[in-house]
Amino acid sequence: MAEELPETPETTEEEPIKQRKNGLYPGVSDELAENMKSGWADTELRDLEPVEQAEHTARRRAALSARFPGERLVIPAGNLKTRSNDTEYPFRSAVEYAYLTGNQTEDGVLVLEPTADGHQETLYLLPRSDRENGEFWLSGQGELWVGRRHSLAEAELLYGIAASDVRELPRKLKEATGPVRVVRGYDTGVEAALTDKVTAERDEELRVFLSEMRLVKDEFEIGELQKAVDSTVRGFEDVVRVLDKAEATSERYIEGTFFLRARVEGNDVGYGSICAAGPHACTLHWVRNDGPVRSGDLLLLDAGVETHTLYTADVTRTLPVNGTYSEIQRKIYDAVYEAQEAGIAAVKPGAKYRDFHDAAQRVLAEKLVEWGLVEGPVERVLELGLQRRWTLHGTGHMLGMDVHDCAAARTEAYVGGTLEPGMVLTVEPGLYFQADDLTVPEEYRGIGVRIEDDILVTQDGNRNLSAGLPRRSDEVETWMASLKS
């Protein structure tokens, strides 16, 4: 990784440019500074088309404007976060900002200024890095170091929103009058400029509204989620083809294999991949992925590709590493499959959100009573929640730009709500028998099974977006054999 050049007096007249303490160059000569200002071709892009979701983001901003008339609304993208010293994590825009703009660049801020008949929208962004003061080659965030940014004029073409220099925004926000709301937690500079103008309660109302807006997906979002799922299916196929290499190394090989598909076809993984072999499958969010992969064990793979527009899949399959379930593995797997079938069948418009969870939990409770692992009757088990020793988690969640989407929505609109066409949720029952659980027979211990699919609520029922991956145990075995042949 190359070193940045140091700042010099010539480059700091407008704004200091950060330098490394131990850079190899002591300074920049006047002649070099002058030389770097000229001789560059015009690279302005003048024939850009709007991003695909522009019509949808415009509609979303209109709904937001209608909900908060007469109020200034401030929605930041967020800033780069330091990983270590002077290296940063890859930037991932705040969901609220990307949902309303289609833009994903750091430091961006969407501001809706109240007018007599709605709001005036402005997208505040960093312009292209300055060539007069040397920022483009001297700053660590300059164009020659991290790549070209869109100009403000280009941004207006892409996103259909008037664009201004974000460096002017703090002053404007400090001078603002009237009611203001801001989405908190992403940009401390923006929040500091508004510190005497906002309240936590009013800001939370804005965050909740933006979360509930995403409960029902539009046609663009459903298409993006299907893209994410389709890439995820291919990622699972990739993993099955290299299970022999994972056996020779570790769960890391599985993680890396899936990540390759995510980066080639999408933006990233939507969350840390869970590549849990053997007893690690009983740890719900096993993301260390540093354990052995052994023939005869199960592999619980919970992973999702995130599209370039930040919509993620969330799919889980529990696969026999050697391609064939043992008798006890099949018994547990088939019970989870039966529970998932009951859960998926309960997903339909007009149903209570909780119905699919209750249906799946009932099947699992019945199995646990049948196997003699917990004392019935089933109604007693469910009333006391005794099945949760082995089922542990809820049976699903909303899915979208966040893997656990719409998390700030009111309980009565989400868990206590009713399913509508356009909602997308996961159905993911599981059974987990910990390796040290002395209340179950030894043959059960260390086996964890989860099956998870992404389900779209339709006008007349549901559609399994991840149906491209087999679920039934015999079909899984046939599918795995076909990929290894």
UniProtKB/TrEMBL annotation:
Residues 1-14 have a biased composition (Acidic residues). It catalyses: Release of any N-terminal amino acid, including proline, that is linked to proline, even from a dipeptide or tripeptide. Keywords: Aminopeptidase, Hydrolase, Manganese, Metal-binding, Protease. It is an enzyme of class 3 (hydrolase). Residues 51-191 form the Aminopeptidase P N-terminal domain. Its EC number is 3.4.11.9. InterPro entries: Aminopep_P_N, Creatin/AminoP/Spt16_N, Creatinase/aminopeptidase-like, Pept_M24, Peptidase_M24B_aminopep-P_CS, X-Pro_dipept-like. Its cofactor is Mn(2+). PANTHER family: XAA-PRO AMINOPEPTIDASE 3. This is Xaa-Pro aminopeptidase. It comes from Streptomyces kebangsaanensis. The lineage of its organism: Bacteria, Bacillati, Actinomycetota, Actinomycetes, Kitasatosporales.
